[in-house]
Amino acid sequence: MKILLVDDHVIVRAGLRDLLSTLSGTEISEAATGRDALLRLRQDRPNLVLLDLNLPGIGGLELLRRMLLEDSTARILVLSMHAEPLYAARAMELGARGYLSKNASADELLTAVRRVMEGSRYIENEIAQELALQKVTSGRDLPDLNERDLEIMRLLAEGMSLAEIADALGVSYKTVANACSRIKAKLGVTRTSELVRLATTLGVA
User: Fold this and answer.
1) Beta-bridge partner residues of 30
2) Structurally, how many domains does the chain consist of?
3) Which residue segment(s) compose the domain that 103 sits in?
4) Residue among 127, 125, 114 at smallest CA distance from 48
5) Are both 115 and 155 inside the same structural domain?
6) Which pairs with CB-CB distance under 8 Å and at least 24 residues apart come from 118-123?
7) The pLDDT of residue 159 is above 80
8) What is the CATH number of the domain that holds 188?
9) Pairing with 127, which of 79, 87, 135, 187 sits 20 to 30 Å away (CA)?
């Protein structure tokens, strides 16, 4: 079984490698950036991708979308610092086979890996419960934000300017400015400062 670890932290990758090596017949490769991950996906054709969302350059959600465009059968399990249901919902909507926060136990991670490899889907228990509860109590779906919207909100909340975000995403300033205007319209706010505060409330920051 080939597993690709995508995380920009060397220590995190080392810990995951040690844990996953307990699974028999496992061959593990690593990538620290989205660009490297796409290259490894093309060359190695891993059976499972373990993907972090907070990556330099191409954000995790955008990388997830690109990976599935490259290989629609890719089994991608997200392992993120974000335990908020909003991220889990978006990742699953984009085609991830599972979602775990980095607060999950080693046993739960191994369970998720096995389930996804068997063709099932897996969402960390607490996140799944929150997601279900949020949909029931709100009576509507989560805000209609796509992966690019979430990435822009996250970078805004980190204090980046529109120009810096455009450079990080590899798009024009106008593209980011227009996207911000659309995000504000979706969320019913008028100022960028309100958008940053809302990003924190929704768990995007």
Assistant:
1) 5
2) 2
3) 2-137
4) 114
5) no
6) 121/92, 121/97, 122/77, 122/97, 122/98, 123/88, 123/92, 123/98, 123/99
7) yes
8) 1.10.10.10
9) 187
Question: Following DSSP, what letter does each residue of the chain receive, concatenated?
Answer: -EEEEE-S-HHHHHHHHHHHTTSTT-EEEEESSHHHHHHHHHHH--SEEEE-S--SSS-HHHHHHHHHHH-TT--EEEEES---HHHHHHHHHHT-SEEEETTS-HHHHHHHHHHHHTT--EE-HHHHHHHHHHHHHHSSPSP---HHHHHHHHHHHTT--HHHHHHHHTS-HHHHHHHHHHHHHHHT--SHHHHHHHHHHTT--
Per the CB < 8 A criterion, the answer to whether 90 and 150 are in contact is yes
Residue 173 structure tokens: 């300033």
- Most confident among 14-18, 23-27, 78-82, 125-129 (mean pLDDT): 14-18
DSSP codes joined into one string, 32-83: SSHHHHHHHHHHH--SEEEE-S--SSS-HHHHHHHHHHH-TT--EEEEES--
User: Residues 115-158: pLDDT tens digits?
Assistant: 999 989 898 877 876 766 555 444 444 456 777 888 888 888 87
**Which tokens hold the place of 1?**
């079984």
| Distance separating alpha carbons of residues 167 and 147, to the nearest angstrom | 17
